[in-house]
Design brief:
The structure holds 2 protein chains of 2 kinds.
Chain A lengths: L1 H22 L3 H22 L2 H24 L5 H7 L22 H25 L5 H20 L3 H19 L6 H23 L8
Chain B lengths: L2 H18 L4 H21 L5 E2 L10 E2 L3 E4 L2 E4 L5 H18 L8 H17 L3 H14 L1 H4 L8 H26 L14 H13 L8 H8 L2 H28 L6 H22 L3 H21 L11 H6 L1 H21 L11 H4 L1 H15 L6 H15 L1 H26 L13 H19 L5 H12 L4
Antiparallel strand pairs in B: 1-2, 3-4
Classes of the chains: A mainly alpha, B mainly alpha.
Chain lengths: 217, 477
């Protein structure tokens, strides 16, 4: 019973953090939410896998967030990339520009909420079918996995800046990991999945910093 | 010593060493070429799993390369049937690294190229599809600095490429897991049409192989980044993914899940050749034309794969798929090199900016057109003999597929003629002069001669490549 409640709580945590990552304008908030999301992914994974294996998801996810955060902090204050990421026109009363993630033409929040709601409807309709295909998959895992995939696709589709796309990829990949955990608990696949999570964030960090590196580095 | 250590771990470690020595660019390129050639030669010469008669002194026991390596509870196997693929991968890497200096690629090209080869080898060696696909995804991530080099703005094409590859890999792994979980045998429920996991698998490969309509990243990448690096990605990533696709096709057709898959692959190939050809014919940017040509080439690769439509076994026609790789690699490498030289002297590759450039850069312009014509399958050039073999086999299975793929290649021919017309068009009286440096001219001339020789004397390499394909795909009854 406790496990069921934990699973439901984790699925809610994943949904909430995923929707907020989709809408967040502050990169620090986004990375904080990513850490919360990985906590939910870890909880749902621990239901199916041994704790030692499940914790790799949490550690890999948190390191991925830390890598992205360090890359953002390393951006020069006045860099064009940062201006792209943080928006060109911010009123004087607003917090410092480096805290903002989306440019002025970011999708309207209402539009984002409606899109997330559509994803939610699609997930509600597909969860039973998926549970039919994978008998070991629990409803909370199926929900969490599908919602992360959907929100990740939205995030990747709505933005073209490296940090947004990388956050979208991380959401998408976490969703896939949740769905796949009921199909296989192979040690190598788990290790490679963690490696892919870390490589996504390292690639993101590289893409954020590459424009400011020297050409011959 | 295991085969995985020689052909995956060693190049991986070497990639790190070369990365740390990247300040000495020429030495790094040279070391990369030598190491790749050595690895290709080792794969060519030494049998795996058998005693090798090399004894430096009599007390030394006979060397034996073990085929299987266990890692995290899974087996990585590189046996004798894999040697052709190893030869091809490392010979290709050596060939591409050889031109990288003249193409003025970023100095990370050599270490990253070797790293990608090491990951591909591990992916080929893995006995499970999920591990192979994840290693492939890691290789795609490693390739990002090649197309979005330090000091340059982040490319949208690179981000899109990443998104598609990761989505494709996830779908492939998930579909594989679902197929394994499906009930089979007498107790299985009969299904109508193609099962959903097979569709998912097809979608996954479509995303990873840039099958239409998921092809948009290819022209973007070719437009935005160093054309030589883009051409390298266009050649190597689909090559590795097609090895994986071939394995999956043979494995799943054996289980009788969907014999219709071969027809799906055939029409996906036709669609790609057609989309690539038509896109190239109407395009006005030389970089994007290269991207469309690469799409058409992946389509030709899929067409060759679809010829092997016997359930659960390889047929001699698999040789066509393998033999294709030489002219494709040669054509794409020369195209990328010539285009890079043009873009070095003239950054904007739009037709409007390139009028009369053939007078200033005649060698690069001539080889660019030659490579384009070769890829289009013009007689007496490298791709022609293998394209004829492909169309001969294809027309017996599907006349419409053969005709439509011919039409796609016609589009590439039109693109070559349009490019030629633009490069020769000059409003003022122009004088010919060579602006390329000596190394570039030497490589361009050697490459152009190779394109012609490969077209005129295909018997020098086609039988060998066909045999390699047959060995790779397994026994033929």
């Amino acid at each position: 019973m406790l496990i069921e409640w934990l699973s439901i709580f984790a699925a809610l945590l994943i949904t909430l953090s995923g929707v907020l990552i989709l809408m967040a304008e502050d990169w620090r908030v986004s990375i904080g939410l990513l850490a919360v999301q990985y906590l939910g992914v870890f909880t749902l994974t621990a239901v199916e896998w041994p704790l030692g294996m499940a914790i790799t998801r949490l550690v890999a996810g948190w390191i991925a967030g830390a890598v992205l955060g360090m890359a953002m902090l390393s951006l020069p204050e006045t860099s064009p990339t940062q201006s792209d990421i943080e928006g060109a026109t911010v009123p004087l009363s607003a917090p410092p520009r480096r805290f903002h993630l989306s440019p002025g033409d970011a999708p309207n929040p209402i539009f984002l909420i409606l899109s997330a709601a559509l994803v939610g409807l699609a997930v509600i309709s597909q969860t039973p079918r998926l549970m039919n295909w994978i008998p070991n998959l629990e409803a909370a895992q199926a929900w969490g996995g599908l919602i992360l995939i959907g929100l990740g696709l939205l995030k990747m589709g709505f933005h073209s800046q490296p940090l947004h796309v990388i956050l979208g990829l991380l959401l998408f990949f976490s969703g896939f990991e949740l769905l796949y955990l009921a199909l296989s608990a192979a040690l190598l696949t788990a290790a490679l999945s963690a490696a892919v999570t870390l490589t996504i964030s390292l690639t993101g960090a590289y893409l954020l910093l590459a424009p400011h590196m020297e050409a011959n580095e | 010593m295991t085969a995985l250590m020689i052909w995956s771990l060693f190049p991986g470690v070497l990639a790190f060493i070369l990365y740390s020595l990247r300040r000495w660019a020429q030495a790094v390129y040279l070391s990369g070429v030598i190491a790749s050639l050595l690895l290709a030669w080792l794969a060519w010469q030494f049998p795996i799993g058998e005693p090798i008669p090399i004894r430096l002194w009599t007390a030394l026991p006979a060397l034996r390369i073990q085929a299987v390596q266990s890692f995290f509870g899974e087996h990585f196997t590189l046996d004798n049937s894999m040697r052709p693929a190893l030869v091809l991968v490392y010979a290709s890497i050596a060939f591409w690294l050889g031109g990288a200096g003249a193409a003025r690629t970023h100095r990370l090209f050599a270490p990253l190229g070797l790293g990608i080869a090491a990951l591909f080898t591990a992916a080929l060696a893995s006995e499970t599809l999920p591990s192979s696909a994840l290693l492939f995804a890691l290789a795609a991530f490693v390739s990002i600095p090649l197309v979005s080099a330090p000091g340059e703005p982040t490319r949208r094409g690179a981000l899109r490429f990443l998104s598609y590859v990761v989505s494709g890999v996830c779908l492939i792994i998930f579909a594989d897991g679902l197929i394994a979980a499906l009930p089979s045998g007498a107790g299985a429920e009969p299904t109508t049409g193609i099962p959903a996991p097979i569709l998912m698998l097809a979608l996954g490969f479509s995303l990873a192989l840039a099958v239409v309509p998921f092809h948009t990243w290819a022209p973007m990448l070719a437009e935005e980044s160093n054309p030589y690096s883009a051409a390298f990605i266009f050649y190597l990533l689909p090559l590795a993914m097609s090895f994986l696709a071939l394995e999956v096709l043979i494995r799943y057709s054996l289980s009788g899940l969907a014999p219709a898959m071969f027809i799906v692959v055939r029409y996906a190939g036709v669609l790609m050749v057609l989309a690539g050809g038509v896109g190239a014919a109407f395009e006005r940017h030389l970089g994007r034309i290269l991207g469309f040509a690469a799409i058409a080439q992946i389509g030709m690769m899929l067409l060759a794969l679809s010829l092997n439509d016997q359930l659960g076994r390889a047929t001699p026609l698999i040789g066509v798929y393998f033999a294709q790789m030489v002219p494709q690699g040669l054509g794409l490498a020369l195209w990328g090199l010539a285009l890079r030289i043009l873009s070095y002297y003239q950054a904007d590759l739009n037709f409007r900016s390139l009028q009369g450039i053939a007078y200033r850069l005649p060698a690069a312009s001539a080889v660019l057109i030659l490579a384009n014509l070769s890829i289009a399958g013009l007689p007496l050039l490298a791709s022609f003999p293998i394209n004829v073999a492909l169309w001969n086999a294809l027309i017996q299975k599907s006349q419409s597929a053969a005709l439509l793929s011919l039409l796609g290649n016609l589009g590439l021919l039109v693109a070559a003629l349009r490019s030629l017309a633009v490069m020769l068009q000059s409003s003022e009286p122009a004088h010919w002069r060579l602006s390329e440096d000596r190394l570039q001219i030497a490589l361009l001339v050697i490459g152009g001669v190779m394109l012609a020789l490969a077209g005129v004397f295909p018997q020098t390499y086609l039988p060998m490549m066909t045999n390699l394909g047959i060995i790779f795909a397994g026994p033929i009854p």
